Amino acid sequence: MKMFVEPISFIVPLRDRREQIPGFLHNIKKYYKNFEIIFCCQDDKLLFKKGQLSNLGFKRAKHNIVAFINLDYRFMSGVDLVAQVRNFDRPIIPFGFSVRVTESDVGQLTIVRGKLTNLSFGGCCVFTRDQFIKSCGNSNLMAGWGPDDNLLAYRTNFCRVSDATMGHVVHLKTGVYFGGDVKLRNQNLKMTDPLRDRKKDGIDQTIATEQSCNTVELNIIEYKFRNICVPDDFEYMDLYSEIEGK
Predict the structure, then answer these.
(1) Which among 244, 119, 120 is positioned nearest to 182, based on CA atoms?
(2) Which CATH superfamily is domain 8-91+122-160+178-244 in?
(3) Distance between CA 218 and CA 35 in Å, rounded?
């Protein structure tokens, strides 16, 4: 089995589903040799801020290749993320299809549903540091899972999509999932983003209180954050206050 040796920073935003961490670690170690994993945990029960957690993780990452990956995604084969992202001038999604899988205690994956066309920017996306900085990172105005990924796709002029397949671990939905008015609001913010200055709503405006920094293993670190927010002079505080009130 080919092991890729150039260093990669894997950034994982999370709050729930911690039972999936052992399988996630097993999967990364199976295919990659030189890496760091940064778990960015939101240590409260407030509105989940996946995009902002990704911004905070990026600020702490040390390698030039950065992979943002959800805790429930698994590589089904070795993918040379470094070569892929360096061969193109845009970030990459290292898979074009996803399959639903279950996971044993020892990390073995069993496919329970066949190939599904992947239409989302999320799951796993890979940047060079310069690409992510140029995009200005994730917006601070998105709520919950999903819309942050889609807006980031606009900010990067979309990505190259690989023809590989990744596994998506079957699990119960946990945490806060938004629908109705909040979903419509997120969609509107995504579509109107070109009207706003992303330099005034991105990684530079994401702030938080770092509760703890725990070394799980060598090069595997878990950060816990609270009070994830924006500065008082945030340009779009009116829009930010709307979602904070939900």
Answers:
(1) 244
(2) Spore Coat Polysaccharide Biosynthesis Protein SpsA; Chain A (3.90.550.10)
(3) 10
Q: Are 42 and 53 in contact (CB under 8 A)?
A: yes
Q: Which tokens go with 25?
A: 């670690």
Mean pLDDT of 133-139: 94
Q: Per-residue pLDDT tens for 138-191?
A: 999 987 776 778 788 888 877 778 888 899 998 766 544 444 566 677 777 877
Q: 7 is written with which tokens?
A: 């260093």
Q: Is the pTM of this model over 0.70?
A: yes
Mapped onto helix, strand or coil, the DSSP state of residue 235 is: coil
Range list of β-strands (E), the chain: 8-14, 35-42, 65-69, 73-75, 92-93, 97-103, 109-117, 124-128, 160-161, 165-169, 207-217, 220-229
Residue 236 scores a pLDDT above 60: yes
